[in-house]
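Sample pair:
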Amino acid sequence: MMKPAYWEKQENDSIHCLLCPNDCVIKPGHVGNCKVRKNDQGALSLPYYGEISSLALDPIEKKPLYHFKPGSRILSIGFVGCSFKCPFCQNYSISQSTQAMTNHHSPADIVAIAQEHNSSGIAYTYSEPTIHFEFIRKTAELAHTAGLYNVIVSNGYLNHEPAEELLDLVDAANIDLKCYTEDFYKREIKGSLRPVLAFIKTAASKCALEVTTLIIPGKNDSTLELESIARFLGDINTDIPLHLSRYYPTYKYSIPPTPVQTMEKLAAAAGKYLTYIYLGNVGVRETNTSCPKCGNLLIRRAGYSTHITGLDGSVCSECGAQIPVVLSFKTPY
């Protein structure tokens, strides 16, 4: 088993976990807020190392990633536990509990499974992957050595040093930006906004980045809120794709689904600051990518069916504009 990282011993055999901004001080025999990092007789242990709750070959658009290897499929793995307590979580059975059925796999097993299924990469997803930092780090290192790429789908709640270390091994990421207020993060999900914004900035400098915001009526669905999110991302790079996902009642939330008209209004507001806005969970409609310069259809998407129609490499086949889409990929090793 990999040696646990980012912790320090304290008095009375307590330990201080330094991985994420939850800043947990864990007493002997107890676990941190994430439920998967444990104090075992005064030392950090990883009782769920390699315990995989979900494993599937997914369209990469399901992550969602629209500008990285469009049309490809990727081996996706999930874990248990989470550093947040979102009352609207769609995967709460694995994120808010460690009781889900799991199968044990080593990092080498995961790389071998990806190769057996002709996947050119591995996605760490479904529940929050970063709390399984040590497993992902080792698997990602082996994946790069084998010529595979690494994708994370994360809440972005990681301290700066482990974030830098992990993102050096990540080739593409989709980060959830729940809202743009500290109050929502603190009250609803028991976290903080500022570290997520810092993580997004770091990720933008190291890998192909896309961002998702779940639009919840009465919570984060104001035009001002979305403009704040889009302005923040646009100040980093106006080409960062923003996915606006439609909320449906689940877990502890019984709020009615987000009206499609609200989604469309917010997409228009975000479009003042960002070039690429995509709507998710809004029924049967195409979510295409068009050239922002000439309007040429570049990538057509109907559900998870994807067709590249107007790209010559990474440029528009009509006007030659450079498009921020990764079609071919080589790992750094």
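The two ends are 24 Å apart (CA to CA).
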